[in-house]
Amino acid sequence: MLKSFAQHLQISGSSLPIIGAMAVGLSAIAPDAIAFTLNSTSGSWSNPVAGEFIQYQTVDQETQVRWGYPAYWVPTGGKSGLGFLGVGETEITSGDIFNLGRLRHYNKTLWYGAPYTVDLSLALDFAELGVKSFNYTLDIEETPNYGTCAYYSVTDCADRIVWNNALAAERFELNGSQYTLELAGFSSGLGGNLMDEFISQEGGSSDAYLYAKLTVIAPPPSVKNPVVIRPPATRPPVKSTPEPGSLLAIAAALGSGYLTKRRQA
Fold it and tell me: What is the pLDDT of residue 263?
């Protein structure tokens, strides 16, 4: 087991009930919270390494990959495999934790033919964002049903499926806001522990649910007091006014000229 699901998302898991595929709010919707519509999620399987008798199928909307030559002579005989069942339309709000679907391991008794690894590609179809894709690689440890069992087993030896929860969050921008879409990991249920493996009993099946979180990291900026830059005012031309001393000098010059003209006359 890894750290708890609540610790991974830095919330209190005790206050969050499980509501199937419905989105669950962390708290009251904040003023800047944005609503989104998750149209659907789906999974597809590919790249089985070293497996034989590989079969891809869809059963009751669950996409499956099956492998191996079944041991039909025992009651638990059949093709082992993995399945992913996505969710339908889900209304979510930024800050919500929401379920993306169910991962299931089918552990049947095989004669041979189990792959070492297989890839799971997840498609998240948002009405506002389009399709976002994430990929997992799952390691498959098919144990022999004799001798000392490697893991706790009820009947024949249990098998082990391992995956890595460490997926990087994806950032994107919508209408001026920036968001992160984080796949939190697989868990037995909201508020439970994160799971990074199945120890599947022979002849049975094991389930885990994949959760994600959509967070606003930068709301659009708001300008409260815009600064208005105005061009400088145009001043009227300034008329120069002679100083009093200058006026006396001009008057004296004019008077001197007047007297000179009279004498000449």
Answer: 46
pLDDT value for 139? 94
Nearest to 49 by CA among 165, 140, 162, 111: 140
In the chain, pLDDT over 70 holds for what percent of residues?
68
User: Residue 119: CB partners within 8 Å, gap ≥ 6?
Assistant: 45, 46, 47, 135, 136, 137, 138
Cβ neighbourhood burial of 230 (10 Å; 0-12, 13-18, 19+): exposed
Query: Which pTM does this prediction carry?
Result: 0.70
Residue 147 and residue 243: Cα distance in Å, rounded?
Answer: 121
Phi, psi at residue 63, to the nearest 5°?
-80, 135
Distance of alpha carbon 11 from alpha carbon 1, whole angstroms: 18
Q: Give the separation between CA 95 and CA 199, rounded to whole angstroms.
A: 32
Rounded CA-CA distance 174/222 in Å is 16
Q: State which amino acid sits at residue 119.
A: D
**Contact (Cβ atoms closer than 8 angstroms) between residue 143 and residue 200:** no
Question: How far is it, in rounded angstroms, from Cα 54 to Cα 27?
Answer: 45
Across the chain, what does the average pLDDT equal?
A: 77
Map residue 250 onto helix, strand or coil. helix
Closest CA to 21 of 126, 94, 91, 125: 91
| C-alpha torsion 136→163→188→10, nearest 10 | -80
Residues 96, 211 contacting (CB under 8 angstroms)? no
Tens digit of each residue's pLDDT (9 = 90 or more) over 26-56: 333 343 678 899 999 999 999 999 999 999 9
Rg (CA), the chain: 39
Which whole-number Å values give the CA distances from 42 to 83, 100, 210, 212, in the listed order? 11, 8, 12, 14
